[in-house]
Amino acid sequence: MKREIAIGLFFALALPAVALIANQMGETFYISLVTRIAILALAATGLNLVLGLGGMVSFGHAAFFGIGGYVAGILASHASDGTMIFNWFSGSDQMLVIWPVAMLVAGLIALPIGIISLRTSGVYFIMITLAFAQMIYYFAISWPAYGGEDGLSLAMRNNFPGVNTLKPLSFFLIAYAVLMVVLFLFSRFRNSRFGAALEGARQNELRLSSVGIAPLRIRLVAFVLSAMITALAGALFVDLNRFVSPSMFSWHMSGELIVLIILGGTGRLFGPLIGAVLYVLFEFALGGMVEHWQLFFGLILLGVVMFARGGIIGLFAGKLRHG
Which residue in 3, 35, 59 sits closest to 179, CA to CA? Predict the structure, then answer.
């Protein structure tokens, strides 16, 4: 456990170190790169809640990532041009308003999806979550009011009190702070009674039911919380790029989040962060040399799956012990 924490802290501290050095050198591209890592790690941490702790392989979490993005984009767009949303709300360009709205909308949509999906398991759960994500994806494409398949551009990055979010380092620090808070909450959640019940539902549903705990209810709460965290990451992702499009709902995005978790370590606290670091670095390094860099990355991922079943953390820190 100490070795796992040391490895995780090394990667966690490396991000602000790289951002500060890049800022001193005037290399804003690298600041944007570590910001993207932080946001992807945040989204994957949300998925890690259900995949790592609950054993639920959701192939539809891109839906919540995209919902968070579209909520941020729509609110900011209406705030910019002064128009009303459904004739009752004028939108907002304040992150502290956008984030809770994005999380609330994602949670409300995740609730019925979870009620339906969680009555299945295995490949059926994978396929039904994928189906819901694709439904939302095609809805976004056919929504011309907000760009349809062309997406929606933001003129300015949304605001945060007392911070100039247009400065790359300032926005990185916001995204990084949110990631650290969510990782802390994930740690507390994993070590709580609810976290133990969620892991119990993964290991033996009948035994959990015999002590009076409903596995479906436990999983549903975890699914909704997971969706809300992923939506928060989606809102930050849109601010990073100042653009939102239906590609955020794509099944490729869901697969990418799963890959981050597997690469770093399923169920590990810092697994999504390490996975995001390695994924973005491979994309940056290999993408600059070869066009189809995913082929080589796939070989690396295959090696991790075959020879490091606990991900990169498991390779160096040993097997994960469940409480």
Answer: 35
Mapped onto helix, strand or coil, the DSSP state of residue 158 is coil
131 alpha carbon, distance to own chain's centre: 19
Encode pLDDT of 240-268 as tens digits.
999 999 999 999 999 999 999 999 999 99
> What are the structure tokens assigned to 7, written together?
């490895």
Report helix angle 215-241 to 62-81, nearest 10: 50
Give the distance, in angstroms, between the CA of residue 10 and the centroid of all CA atoms in the same chain: 21
Q: Are strands 152-153 and 243-244 parallel, antiparallel or unpaired?
A: antiparallel
And the tokens for 99?
Answer: 């984030």
- pTM across the whole model: 0.94
Would you state the structure tokens that stand for residue 2, as one six-digit string?
């100490």
3-class DSSP state for residue 321? coil
Closest to 42 in 3D by CA, of 167, 214, 211, 226:
226
